[in-house]
Specification:
Layout: E1 4-12, H1 16-27, E2 33-35, E3 49-50, E4 59-60, H2 61-74, E5 78-80, E6 84-88, E7 94-98, E8 103-111, E9 115-117, E10 133-134, H3 137-140, E11 148-152, H4 156-165, E12 171-175, H5 185-193, E13 197-200, E14 203-212, E15 215-224, E16 230-234, E17 237-240, E18 244-246, E19 257-258, E20 262-263, E21 277-279, H6 291-311
Parallel strand pairs: 1-2, 1-8, 2-5, 8-21, 10-17, 11-12, 11-17, 12-13
Antiparallel strand pairs: 3-4, 6-7, 7-8, 9-18, 14-15, 15-16, 19-20
Bound molecules: flavin-adenine dinucleotide and NADP nicotinamide-adenine-dinucleotide phosphate.
């Protein structure tokens, strides 16, 4: 295969937005190429049950994403395991340079690079990443059988992580900086019912405590947000679940953005500030950030790209 690959439409990202765009673009006979990135299937591959994908009362996140990938492939989308490291949206055709050394040229592009986990930015957080500090209970929960673990955050993800960890841990401490959760009511109900979970309200994590040899977390220093008192708690692991930020570093300098890197799209469309470049999914959305809303904007992006390409034949 040549190092220069040209397509009418390049889709970057393999989450619900990317694969949905691929399904629609393939049916529109655009022969799209989709680059999966380092997380094939996107964020849902690090969760377990998904209970709000219409048509599936309950499905494992990784299974849902395999179904989406198969669907896109079956309709003719070329799905490539590669990662884009540079993107030039100033010249036409657009050019994406991949880790493999390949150059992907395209007349139009759909950006669907999603979002990535936020970290607290604590002094010891980086040092203990992989040694007790994690952002993925599905990936690492198994290592905490009969141990005490902490989860930080108060959204859907924190609550789901806490519930999942009760399968392994003897006790789960949910640490939240306020006195109410923002997670959905159904998840809050499950949380309150679970005897293994204790919620530490109004607590801020000041730092992670651990041992060096072998490296491992032993606890956390917390601050009570009401009276500023410091408290030490014991825990063998801590799962950070404090939200996500858009994965837009590649093109943040080239496109209009808002709220820390989300891509601006024209109201009611997926058009970005550069003609022929469309964006979808969590990358454009600082409000809903759901699989189904990402899929919906992925669909819109493919339809918008089709219209753009037919207007600009040989773009
Ligand atoms: P993502 O799923 O984030 O996928 C982004 C893709 O872009 C990835 O494939 C990545 O490899 C690729 N990529 C990034 N950078 C590059 C690059 N430079 N080159 C090539 N590719 C790149 N939502 C629900 O509706 N229901 C749930 O039950 C639910 N549970 C969740 C549980 C967890 C633990 C998490 C973290 C999220 C959950 N969500 C849930 C939210 C949902 O996963 C996201 O809203 C959705 O995945 C966003 O889809 P997306 O296609 O925009 O991006
Ligand atoms: P989120 O909804 O943005 O919640 C982030 C939580 O972390 C909030 O409770 C926030 O506290 C807290 N937080 C943020 N920064 C913090 C900091 N520096 N220190 C301490 N706490 C901090 O994020 P999420 O839970 O990761 O969910 C992301 C998106 O994915 C959401 O749209 C969510 O609905 C979706 N999702 C859906 C499901 C599902 O449908 N079952 C499951 C998982 C995720 P405050 O509340 O004080 O702001």
């Amino acid at each position: 295969m040549s190092n220069h690959i040209k397509s009418k439409l390049l889709i970057i990202g393999s989450g619900p937005a990317g694969y949905t765009a691929a399904v629609y673009a393939s049916r529109a006979m655009l022969s799209p190429i989709l680059i999966q990135g380092i997380q094939p299937g996107g964020q849902l591959t690090i969760t377990t049950e998904v209970e709000n994908w219409p048509g599936e009362e309950e499905i494992q996140g990784p299974d849902l994403m395999i179904k989406m990938e198969n669907h896109a492939r079956k309709l003719g989308c070329e799905v490539i395991s590669d990662h884009i490291k540079k993107l030039n949206l100033n010249d036409r055709p657009f050019c994406a340079e991949a880790d493999s050394g390949k150059l992907y040229y395209a007349d139009s592009i759909i950006l669907a690079t999603g979002a990535q986990a936020n970290w607290l930015g604590l002094q010891n957080e980086e040092k203990f990443k992989g040694f007790g500090v994690s952002a993925c209970a599905t990936c690492d929960g198994f290592f905490y059988k009969d141990k005490v673990v902490a989860v930080v955050g108060g959204g859907n993800m924190a609550v789901e992580e806490a519930l999942f960890l009760t399968k392994f841990a003897s006790r789960v401490l949910l640490i939240h900086r306020r006195d109410s959760l923002r997670a959905e009511k159904i998840l809050q109900h499950r949380l309150m019912e679970n005897k293994k979970i204790e919620i530490l309200w109004n607590k801020k994590v000041i730092d992670v405590i651990g041992e060096n040899n072998p490296p491992g977390v032993t606890g956390l220093i917390l601050e009570d947000t009401n009276n500023k008192k410091l408290i030490n708690i014991d825990a063998s692991g801590v799962f950070i679940a404090i939200g996500h930020s858009p994965a837009s570093e590649l093109f943040v300098e080239q496109l209009k953005t808002y709220d820390g890197g989300y891509i601006v799209t024209e109201p009611g469309s997926t058009k970005t500030s550069i003609e022929g470049v469309f964006a979808a999914g969590d990358l454009v959305d600082n409000v809903y950030r759901q699989a189904v809303t990402s899929a919906a904007t992925g669909c819109m992006a493919a339809l918008d790209a089709e219209k753009y390409l037919s207007k600009n034949k040989g773009a």
